[in-house]
Amino acid sequence: IWVCRLILAVPFPEDFIFGVSTAAYQNEGAWNTSGKGPSIWDTLTHERPELILDRSNGDVADNSYNKWEEDIELLNDLGVQFYRFSIAWTRIFPDGEPINPNQEGINFYNNFLDQLTSNGILPMVTIFHWDIPESLQKMGGFMNPRIIDYYTAYAKVLFDHFGDRVKYWITINEPKQYCQEGHGEASYAPAINISGVADYLCGHNIIRAHAAVYHMYDDYYRSLYDGEVGISLSGHWFEAYTRDDEDAAERMRQFYVGWWANPIFSSEGDYPKVMKEFISKRSSQQGYPWSRLPEFTEDEINYIRGTADFFGFNHYTTFMAQNAESDDLTVSYANDHQVIFASDPTWARGASAWLSVVPWGFRKYLKWIKDTYSSPIIYVTENGFSDHGGLHDPERVQYYKQYMEALLEAIYIDEVEVKGYAPWTLMDNFEWFDGYVNRFGLYGVDFSDPNLPRKPKDSAKYYKEVIKSRRLV
Ligand code: PNW
């Protein structure tokens, strides 16, 4: 109790920065104007609307492509020091082919960055937030190793045109969701649904693509612009259900975050040992002549290790994890990790099926990252709570208050190097398969009004006070 009291009175460290997050497909709209080509999200929402809870799409979304000046006003109103947003690949290379970048797309982001920086807001740019050009997907997308060249060519255009103003780059948002849930399962585009195979192929190339872009920045752009390059990894905290489940909970953390973090942030590099062991054992029992988890060469391990200036961490929730080792030989990611997990029924819940409110899991996760990866610099690049909308959102205020309290404990008591915090998300937007049903915004958007007016929720007012006083109010 004393510790809590003290934490509430302590200000955030002086060099700590507050921001807020969004992503292109979820906010921009203008899906087929100004030279933009279709991405896999345009295709999926148009061809398979039944997959989206309200059969909606991001054709218009928040229309941020046209209302961007108003959005910057919201950022000014909040008082954030940085803004995390993503660039739509298909505005730069409409069909993915790395020739003749689309000048209108470049102009759009140039104007946006000028206005942002002239308002004193630091841009944190996500290069890839899931919206790969449709035509690259037709050639296998991230399952085709040639994607590394396509992705690098795209990133080069961003560095060339925007590098002078962008201090923070995020190569990829949440490869776990994109590769495992979008390739292993069908929970996100491109909805490949080949678990235990397609997810690992996608993951292998995504990690190599990340490393290639990091090295390109390091070799050619760092000396010019002195920016930082990281990656945003999502992670639930997995808490052991009983004492006997400690190994299972740790194995699940490795299969969820370690998959990406071990190759990049650990001192030895490569996939986590437990992943390699479990997947290769299971593959051979199933009769595969190889492990379904691809192997990095020694050179690749060294090339990938250390390719991040910061650890972008997206965190929302916690699950209780239980060992589920069995002899079932079905090929799947779940059958590879052999852990089952569930929320504790006593926890408060958000509107998203997977979201419960467990602030202590956030603190434990931050400490785990510090201990497992030798104390990297961490920016929390997402954290948030979903409901069904409305400007009075006491549950979201409570969520932010409790999670930021856990964050302060991680910083001051556990001495974790967290340097910034960006809630998900600025305003209600297209929440992937949940359409516009589940809302994460600090600002509410009235989607029934064609002008899409934005209004501050109570949580926006709360966050604004926190930023202003640099204390939990
Ligand atoms: C993130 N989960 O995705 C994404 O980066 C955002 O684009 C998205 O809108 C936001 O979180 C809210 O969903 C996640 O199942 C999706 O735990 C699902 C999970 C976590 C993050």
Architecture overview:
It contains 17 helices and 13 strands. It has 473 residues and is α/β, with parallel strands linked by helices. The chain has an eight-stranded parallel barrel, surrounded by five helices. It has a three-stranded mixed β-sheet with strand order 6-8-9. It has a two-stranded antiparallel ribbon with strand order 12-13. Helix 9 (175-184) runs antiparallel to helix 10, helix 15 packs parallel to helix 16 (394-412) and helix 16 runs parallel beside helix 17. It starts with a helix and ends with a helix. The mean pLDDT is 97.
Structural class: alpha/beta
Whole-number average pLDDT? 97
Helix content: 40-55%
- Widest sheet, order of strands: 1-2-3-4-5-7-10-11
Shape: globular
Q: Name the bound molecules.
A: 4-nitrophenyl beta-D-glucopyranoside
Count the beta strands: 13
Per DSSP, the total helix count is 17
Main sheet, how many strands, which sense, barrel?
8 strands, parallel, barrel
Low-confidence spans: none
| SSE string, helices as H and strands as E | HEHHHEHHEHHEHHEEHHHEEHEHEHEEEH
Q: What gyration radius follows from the Cα positions, in whole Å?
A: 21 Å
Q: Terminal Cα separation, in Å?
A: 17 Å
Percentage of residues in DSSP E strands: 5-15%
GO molecular function: beta-glucosidase activity
Pfam family, one: Glyco_hydro_1
Keywords: Glycoprotein, Glycosidase, Hydrolase, Signal
Subunit structure: Homodimer.
